[in-house]
Design goal:
The complex is a heterodimer of chains A (113) and B (111). Chain A contains no helices and eleven strands. Chain B has 111 residues and is an all-beta fold. Helix content of chain B is 0%, strand content 51%. In chain B, β9 and β10 form a beta hairpin. Chain B is globular, with a radius of gyration of 13 Å. The termini of chain B are far apart. The chains are: A mainly beta (113), B mainly beta (111). The interface between A and B is medium-sized, with 24 and 27 residues.
């Protein structure tokens, strides 16, 4: 079965600093999803990546899927306290021939003002 | 912006009792899901539901669990006889294509 491993497990950065979170899959990724989890708000969808080499950006967050489609990175530029939360990568969905998602272990981000 | 709504936000129950967790998916979505997250662990898939039947389920989703779409708007998860290990955050999600949108969750505490 497919496993997703995220690194680092937790991250504390000063406001304004850049950071990167990695997600590595044990199998080829046919659909990779990034979510942000905050208590009381559930999982908030950020981005979906499907093609090798694909890169997407939303505001100050950029996500990439490598050419071999086994690793994705999430990069935050000039972090702000509003970026704090737990970032989850997920894989699966109908492009993978399944309805379910599996999720990574999560990366807890704290941004110091 | 449309969202998935879950009620209640927190449910406390005694071991052996039945609980029903409720969800209102996004209105034009066709696929519905339940996931759970035990404290400190990964978010785990329980079940997916499409066209009024279960389309996929995990090993966790045993005979103690059931899902239902009783009307055109609600989607429920029933746990027949709760156990201590059912204590977790339960998330409902819905999708129309590949992207699943999640609710804020129901925290279930079994005493």
């Amino acid at each position: 079965s497919q496993e997703l491993e995220q690194s680092p497990q937790s991250l504390i950065v000063q406001e304004g600093k850049n950071l990167t979170i990695n997600c590595t899959s044990s199998k080829t990724l046919y659909g990779l999803y990034w979510y942000k989890q905050k208590y009381g708000e559930g999982l908030i969808f950020l981005m979906m990546l499907q093609k090798g080499g694909e890169e997407k950006s939303h505001e100050k967050i950029t996500a990439k899927l490598d050419e071999k489609k086994q690793q994705s990175s999430l990069h935050i530029t000039a972090s702000q306290p509003s970026h704090a939360g737990i970032y989850l990568c997920g894989a699966g969905g109908t492009t993978s021939g399944t309805y379910k998602y599996i999720f990574g272990t999560g990366t807890r981000l704290k941004v110091l003002a | 912006e449309p969202e998935v709504t879950q009620t209640p936000s927190h449910q406390v129950t005694q071991m052996g009792q039945e609980v029903i967790l409720r969800c209102v998916p996004i209105s034009n979505h066709l696929y519905f899901y339940w996931y759970r997250q035990i404290l400190g662990q990964k978010v785990e898939f329980l079940v997916s539901f499409y066209n009024n039947e279960i389309s996929e389920k995990s090993e966790i989703f045993d005979d103690q669990f059931s899902v239902e779409r009783p009307d055109g708007s609600n989607f429920t998860l029933k746990i027949r006889s709760t156990k201590l290990e059912d204590s977790a955050m339960y998330f409902c999600a819905s999708s129309v294509a590949n992207i699943q949108y999640f609710g804020a969750g129901t925290r279930l505490s079994v005493l």
